[in-house]
Amino acid sequence: MRMYDIIMKKRNNEALSKEEIDFLIEGYTKGEIPDYQMSALTMAIFFNKMTAEETLNLTMAMANSGDMLDLSAIKGVKVDKHSTGGVGDKTSLALIPMVAAVGVPTAKMSGRGLGHTGGTIDKLESFTGFRTDISTEHFIEQVNRIGISIMGQTADLAPADKKLYALRDVTATVDNMSLIASSIMSKKLAAGADAIVLDVKTGSGAFMKKEEDSFALAREMVAIGNGAGRKTIGVISDMDQPLGRAVGNALEVKEAIDTLNGGGPEDFKELCLTLGSYMVVAAGKAADKEEARTKLSEVITNGAALEKLAEFVEAQGGKREEVYNPELLPKATMVQEILSEEEGYISGIVCDEIGICSLILGGGRETKESEIDLSVGLVLHKKKGDYVTKGESLATIHANDTDKLEAAKKRFLAAYTFSGQKIEKASLIRGVVE
Length: 434
Ligand code: URA
Fold this sequence. Notes:
four-stranded mixed sheet, binds uracil
């Protein structure tokens, strides 16, 4: 088999066989196929697309390119959750303890953030001493003992995807549906869960800006998951404005704790209950979504979900008292209100821009090596459809540097648009692909 012939075949818009896909992924992972040939192939895929069968074969080949985590030592049906990423997306911080408190074993691998969307691992490190660089043995033992663990992604999980994603990133071939779906799903399949609930975001702060593209991506990923024998569900949710109100690591942790205490923003709570009910049903811990929702609401009301978070934080080296007293979490030195310069209904928020404000303040990473400031960020008081008067506070900004504060504030104000007309509030959950 020759890579040249495979490139030619895809260039001529023919489907690749499983053997060809296995050959090219194995060769590329081992360094036997050079980047220039792989770039030519990804560009041909970009234009000529892949069939569902090719996409599944590509996903399996990438999942099998490194370690496949074996979670069989954990009792029960393991359910994983994945978000395609967004601004203020702290869902796992509240959702995972909620689901674990209902009795679903949650063994989750998470990543760090790069750019304007934060990673769960970074957010969790707001707890003093919290560690995610734990061994697989520790991870499995902890899930069997307390029902919950989140560890950082190991380097040898789907290494083919790691290499290919980096190549796509610099050759303008990221945004092909099959390549995105196989990239995400290869890591999910390698992470070993029996069932997967996907939160596919849509809107200005999401990877997929258009709703029809988000549905198409969800359908593609659900087909891969089910094709690989893992029950997979895709929920399409709004990311046309930040989720909840807090954007920034420790601020998001505080918002997740508020939510587990029975407070928190309505949209955030609703997303946790929706995703959670699919997870609980998939794990066989409730007969239907309504029963699952009742159980999830109960663990908020009776404090079991918050206690599960405290147990989890303590088991991974963190301080449980910070869960019960979030005032102890990292705090910025400067806290100011951002006052509206206009009056009217908020007709739009350029969601990405709010993420970039947090990045400017130091809350995100410009490069993989950047240190992040856990204490900074924003708490939004006004969102789409709300009415504001001139001089009213749109948000509170938390900063540690005056220049950064001013730059973020300017950018924040420019991200809001106003209208004299009343604006319909968009629905949070746009649909479900099962
Ligand atoms: N996230 C991934 O992991 N891969 C992609 O291709 C796009 C987003």
